[in-house]
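#structure-requests
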Amino acid sequence: MQKQDGKKFTSSLLFTAGLSILVGIIIMLIPIPQSLREVAEAVPARNADLGWRLLAIFVATIVALILKPFPMGTVSFIAITLLAVTRTLSIGVALSGFANTVIWLIVCAFFISKGFVKTGLGQRIAYLFMKAFGKKTLGLSYSFIVSDLVMAPAMPSNTARIGGILYPIIRSLANVFGSKTEDKTERKVGSFLIYTTFQADNVVSAMFMTAMAANPLTVQIAYEVLGLQISWMQWAVAAFVPGIVTLAILPFLLYKIYPPEIKETPEAAEIAKEKLKEMGPLSKKEKMMMFVFFQILVLWIFGPNFGIGATTTALIGLSTMLILGILTFDDIKAEQSAWDTLVWFAALVMMATQLNTLGVIPWFSYSVESAVSGFSWIVAFAIIALAYFYSHYFFASATAHVSAMYGALLLASVSLGAPPLFAALVLAFFSSLYMGLTHYGTGSAPVYFGSGYITQGDWWGYAFLVSLVNITIWVFVGGLWWRILGLW
């Protein structure tokens, strides 16, 4: 039996890996479009032949990231090697992504989030809000959402926040209230809490540059494509109003259309009270972690006024944690997700940058621009944004989606007349909001779907309704707010 399983696994791995390679070969065999040559030849530094070869390797890499024949880091190393071996890029350029400051911002933020988990501060935050709002099922859902919101600025992994910290608490609560998948009682409270927390987290992820791993990638691509610099504070201010309105409405809406059978949960507040009693008063390490948290928030907000950038702030926060003993260097070495992110992030940022340099992104942007050129910039941008949003059905990774489409669609939007900062932020916000469409669209989705509390039909059906609500709020409430801010 084990041999058969091993053969199936090997066959599946070879098939998916072969399919990724085949996609790249097919693109290589397609004649280079004349329009690409025209766009490339307009700028001496561009090269259509190298750009087309890079596009083939890039698309093959994206397919591999979706099909996952190997871990993302492995795929990224293979892609970097192929670029160097085929002389598509020099080895120096192929490795240039590792020097990118935005990548180190997100890596440092992973280490900072480790402090929340190690000290227990993240769990304490969740129990504090659970104690305050957990007497009713609806209030309990808001308690998890507010906990997520509080942790999000310094925790770039939505999987770590709602998968590592909140999910175990939600599962244990569901069991306390007799809501289990084994006896078909999941709708008592479990289904509602699982689904609401997951969908709300996608909104929370859109609210801060450092709340989700792909967010800094959008910032970096916006800079590479348009020379546009987006600060942590600009992002947070622009997302605050539509984000808060969505978080206020969404749980109540799901409570009405996907209601729990149990409405009153006084035991939840008591459980939180007992857990906090077991944890005791704030430990020294928790107090230190709180100090670091507020330190980095203050520097992210006010640091640019003194020449302290976001990455420098993250390094200051990490160094403070090491000095205070909140983390050890062994903790740093053991944080595999951070180092994995460094590798695939470096590869994707480098390839996106070079696709722009060689003329491929400007060419694709020109093609999109031509397709919607007959409309006003508002209508054209709406079409582009909606196409970008719902194309996430075809992606199993927000990072892969951003890498594949964000830069070209942003450039096309601006070429059609959309204000640069407005277009960059809206598409960046959508890069988090679209994660809730499927049960595979982000790292936390398989964790929550795998619990068995929501059927695939319910997940997809309600997800589409949630997407309409999210888009409506962010377009109308957000649009008014962005008008006040002068973004358009």
